Amino acid sequence: MKKIGIFLLSSLGLINPSIFGAMSKHIVDYRIQVKLQPETKGLAGRETVTWLNDSLVPVSELQFHLYLNAFKNNRSTFMKESGGAHRGFKVDENDWGYITVKNVRIRDGEDLTSRMEFIQPDDGNPDDQTVMRIPLAAPVGPQERIALEIEFEAKLPRVFARSGFADDFYMAGQWFPKLGVNQDGVWNCHQYHESSEFFADYGVFEVEITVPKGYVVGATGQRTSERDNGDGTASYTHYQEDVHDFAWTACPDFVEFRERFYLEDLPVDTEIILLVHRQHLNQKPRFLDSLKKGLEFYSRNYGPYPYQTVTLVDPPIKAMGAGGMEYPTLFTTMAVWFMPKGLRMPEMVTIHEFGHGYWYGIVGSNEFEEAWLDEGINSYSEMKAMDRYYGHDRSMVDLGPLKISDGDYHRLQFIPIFAWDPIVKNSWEFVSGGSYGSNVYSKAALTLKTLENHLGEEVMARIMRTYYERWKFRHPTTGDFIAVAEEVSGRDLGWFFDQFLKTAGSLDYAVSGIRSREEEEPAGFYGEEFLAPKPDKSGRDKDQDKVYRNEVVVQRKGELFFPQEILVTFEDGEEIREIWDGRDRWRRFIYRRPVKLKSARLDPENKILLDVNFFNNSKVLKPDRASPLKYALGLALKFQEFLTWLSF
Amino acid sequence: MKILKSYSLGIRQASSQGKMVLVLWVFSLLFAAVVYFVGAGYFAGALGQSELAGNLLKQFDTGLFLEMLVHNQAPLGMIFKVIVVLAFLYYWVSIFLTGGILHVLLSPNESMGNEPRRRRFASAFFQGAGRYFGRFFRLEVYSLILWVGFFFFQLVFNLAAKPFTSDGTNEKMLYYVFWVRVGLSLALIFLIRMILDYARIIIVRADTGRVLRSLWDSVRFVFKRLFRTLALYYILLITGALIFLVYWGIHSRVSTGSLAKIWLAFFIGQVFVMSRGWLKIGFQAAQITFYDRA
Q: Residues A180-208: what's their mean pLDDT?
């Protein structure tokens, strides 16, 4: 009787979810009713959550995320770390957000309300209330379940970081008491940080959302029912299995578009739902087209999209802080009415956020501790998709002569600030948001692209597909990714991952010297014999062929190493390719030829995208004077053009 | 008719002032030369002996170019400061030169005297430039009154636009309001500059030191004939825009992948700069004609 509300379930059925037709092991089961109160920007909610102890040890407490409390005051960990700003959007100090658990009890059993307490496992900040623990009177045994009934109230903040409201637009993400992940009896339940996203367990979500009539609602999963409550409100129920979070949005200014998406040769049949803000209807074709491209690319390259729906949410301009965020089967994109076609921000954001559905949604990466497994792998995937569909040299910007690829964009993000942190690190421990972004997104994406160039596209494709297939609906670690990469490629890649994921060092190779010197005939003492110098310094007749000592010195300037290929070109067009393991600090190559060197180039195919400086990768014997002239004259001419406007 | 007559006379007069065009061009080139040398040092240092210099010569690669800037950020601030200082100096030099232009255009016989023809132009031009610079400088100071009006307009515009933009959700409205603001602001800038043009003409025509009075006379002159003065000004502006379009059309078609083509593109650019000098003289000459006949 002490364990009222705890259900013993057959471990056999739970260990093998496929017996029930599920794709994931259902650790959690949430049944939630929530009502939006527009006048107070509040939420009134009631949830029943059932949790399975999937570990081999009894668990004597539960830990919950109460993430809306990140916006409760200016001393929460998130507010302290971020300074009240996120991606350039600032907090409105008149509109804080919070969540209050009013009551929690074991179903049909003990009231646990008085046991609740806030904890701060990451930084000990006593003002942070984003994690709550509830000690249990009796532990939950291995493979047992516990069901709790929770009543909560919340207020949404004016949106500047993912969740909140702006006028009558509402984005409810991280809005309900959500369980952390229990790993081997220990809770993995981090506070809400500036530079981190989320981590939770898979299960079932059934959520009934009540909003004022006339609001258009979008949410994770499929809509199973909707009803007019006759009191000026309407309720919509959404249901989804095999996800680890649930988000919803509501706004009377959304225009909803639905379209089925099939792939003939793959088991993909899903409903695309676009919630386009009335102000951005001109952007709808861009959203739809890029989402279809994303669905096709990820399905073909990693695995068929497994859910019945995917919902794109287009926030209004005043709620841009909610844009560019992923939730299971739902994501927010970003656009403005006057976005030129050549600026592919809506396309990039759409493909990127949809892609998170794979690397955060389906593969349950821990974004607190190893964010690159989601952000980095997804940026790599996005880069490939953008290049594939929009052109490898212009996938991000294509405005007249101004062309920037997604790869260029990531290099420009990576070069200036990567060296502060390694890629693999707790997200909140990066020196700054800039370092987090540079490493976790861009450097990680370039690391994988460099690996692809090193191993070959086909091998890398198999690595990614195997990793996805093996770890979908589970929680992999960096070690699991490396193991798959080594297994599939059949190579020891420790040297690669240890350097590029786990250290902050730089990779920089340079051609530090290149010269051609005419060889002279022997002169001086050779044993007993004295050879007098010949009048012509080269020692040869004028019509005799000259011989040059051609010398190339390559240098490892950074701390990290990578095997190098060097292309040496001579004036007569002859080319020699040298291989260098790249471990020593420098290496010299000498060639005796009747012609001079023309150039030497490291990494001639630009495979090593982690090399921080492409400009020192090559040297020509005769510097090109025309290029500086071109740009200097161009600058002078632009200045003159400006002066003509200034003085007309 | 008076407008078109003034326009065509102004253009004709500008076309007969080859030396003046040359002087304006030389000054522009001198300022540009400083920028060139600063830029040449920067690009030579940034590109060094890299093979990528050749790639950037053949084709402009935005990503590569930006990467070069990222690797060589330190001097950029200095280059920017040099450009700002030069632009500021050139502004005053152009006012100095305007004195010369007006002096030659308004009193050709008196100023040229009996000196040899070549010397006559130079001495007349620079004599005028020096003679009126102080007055034009004061005019620029007094014109702050007009620029205060310009900023007052911005405030009024903000208030007027507020009902349409305050909720910040109607993106189309925000977009249109932005462009209306740009259009009206430009129109106001043109109006102020036109008033200053006529004020200078009045100063030189009367050879007067009463600058504030001249500014006031110019305001009265312009507002009494607002449509006609604006029409003439905008016809001249359109002429400038057409010249720019022709230049842009030609210049953008010249690929700069070789040394010869780089110089060709630069030469075309210099022709454009000269044409702008010619048009500047045309502006002054046409407005003088219009002022004299009004």
A: 97
Q: Which amino acid is at B229?
A: T
Collapsed DSSP state (helix, strand, coil) of residue B21: helix
Which residue ranges make up each domain of chain B? Answer: 2-293
- Measure the CA–CA gap between B163 and B152, rounded to whole angstroms: 18
Phi then psi for residue B77, to 5 deg, are -60, -40
Q: Answer for the pair B43, A632: CB distance below 8 angstroms, yes or no.
A: yes
Contacts of A246 (CB under 8 A, 6+ apart): A30, A32, A176, A205, A207, A219, A220, A221, A238, A240, A327, A328
Q: What pLDDT score does A135 carry? A: 97
Per-residue pLDDT tens digits for A226-241: 999 999 999 999 999 9
Q: Which of A616, A641, A643 sits opposite B50 (nearest CB)?
A: A616
The residue to which tokens 């005043």 are assigned: A318
pLDDT tens profile A371-406: 999 999 999 999 999 999 999 999 999 999 899 999
State the distance between the two ends of chain A, measured CA to CA, in whole angstroms.
92
Minimum CA–CA partner of A277 in chain B: B169
Whether residue B49 and residue A634 make contact (CB cut-off 8 A), yes or no, is no
User: Which domains does chain A show, CATH number per domain?
Assistant: 509-523+540-627 (2.60.40)
Contacts of A280 in chain B (CB under 8 A): 171
Predicted confidence at residue B107, as pLDDT, reads 78
- B193 chain-A contacts, CB cut-off 8 A: 648
Q: Across chain B, which distance is largest between two alpha carbons, in Å?
A: 71
Contact B31, A643 (CB under 8 A): yes
**What confidence category does residue A6 fall into, taking pLDDT thresholds of 50, 70 and 90?**
very low
ipTM higher than the 0.90 cut: yes
Tokens read off for A285: 């074709």
pTM, rounded to two decimals: 0.91
